[in-house]
Design a protein that fits this description.
The protein is of the alpha/beta class. The chain has a single domain, classed as 3-Layer(aba) Sandwich (Rossmann fold), CATH 3.40.50.2300. It is built from five helices and five strands. A five-stranded parallel β-sheet has the order 2-1-3-4-5, sandwiched between helices. β4, α4 and β5 form a beta-alpha-beta unit. α2 runs parallel beside α3. The relative contact order is 0.18. The structure holds magnesium ion. Magnesium ion (MG) binds next to loops.
Length: 122
């Protein structure tokens, strides 16, 4: 059975690009446009890994991480957060809030593949 990756990004274009890459890596892909939608998908479909945007309306990446951390269920997804801000403090904050890895946008297939390997999703 293929693993499921939830792509969380307010940009439809980025979701589409990520979906395409992930499907070539044989993931089944779910999408959410903000952290709040993403929590609903996590509670229902239990993705293996979440590709998480940082800046989003309604609920951003940091609030999503905190809410996911507070949810009580086993086998939580691995989280790779995506950022355009190359800031050490920013990255540390995300890791402290529960992210497993981070990736700089825009990312290509090879970079995403290696990050997914690092978190054990591939
Ligand atoms: Mg965004």
């Amino acid at each position: 059975m293929s693993k499921t990756c939830l792509v969380v990004d307010d940009s439809k274009v980025i979701r589409k690009v990520a979906r395409h890459i992930l499907e070539t890596l044989e993931f089944s892909v779910e999408e959410a446009a903000d952290g709040s939608e993403a929590l609903e998908v996590c509670a229902g479909k239990r993705p293996d890994v979440v590709l998480l945007d940082w800046n989003m309306p309604v609920m951003g990446g940091m609030d999503f991480l905190r809410a996911l951390g507070a949810m009580a269920y086993p086998d939580k997804p691995k989280v790779v957060f995506c950022t355009t801000e190359n800031s050490g403090a920013h990255i540390r904050a995300a890791i402290e809030a529960g992210a497993d890895e981070y990736i700089m946008k825009p990312f290509d297939r090879d970079t995403l593949e290696s990050k997914l390997q690092i978190v054990g999703a591939l």
